[in-house]
Amino acid sequence: MVDGPNVVEISQADAETAIVAGGLSVGTIITANSDTVPEGNVISQDLVAGASVPTGAAVDLVVSSETAAYQHDFEGYAAEKAKARHCFTRGTCN
What we know:
Strand content: 15-25%
Oligomer: single chain
Largest sheet: 3 strands, mixed
Strand order of the largest sheet: 2-5-3
Number of helices: 3
Helix content: 25-40%
Shape: elongated
Low-confidence stretches: none
């Protein structure tokens, strides 16, 4: 048994490192918009931090994709126009 880490509000990469270092495995990762958590950081985890769980247990994560406020900037735009604005405002079209 190992104690689950608290990886909320740290980067996805750091969260994955902490999970594996703690004797657990990275489970399912999904993305969601957040008004408070920066893009690329963990919004939530399914494992209660500090809870004793079996070694190797999977920790599922929800990672911020973009702020919800940023997404609202594109409401009413056609897909091509929204992408062009995204590329301009973010400086990248990734």
